[in-house]
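Good morning C.,

I know you're traveling, so I'll keep this short. The sequence:
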Amino acid sequence: MTLFPVVIATPARPGSRLDLDEVARIGCVHPEFVRRLASLGLLDVTVEADRHLTFPPGAPARLARIQRLHVGLSLSYAAIGLVLELLDRIDGLEHRLRTRPVLDSEGTRPWI
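The tokens, ready to paste straight into the viewer:
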């Protein structure tokens, strides 16, 4: 049985970024693995002027998701890219449903 680290998503300060070592440490993986996932386009990365890699605050959670998909479902990294794209779309649609009220013709929510 494979165990994965629990990644707790915490609200980040606006504009805050994580460096390569932080993402690797939180995800319990080698930094070269994080670099490889970034080069495959599975993790968003920004290359700073001094060639320093920085990642968005959600990178550790995305890394954990990639690991679960790869090991748990035996998906290739190419397939994982497609699955992540679909999951991102689903997250976006769910967010829109939660934040946009649905009203009937009388201006009330039909399920209330």
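Safe travels,
E.
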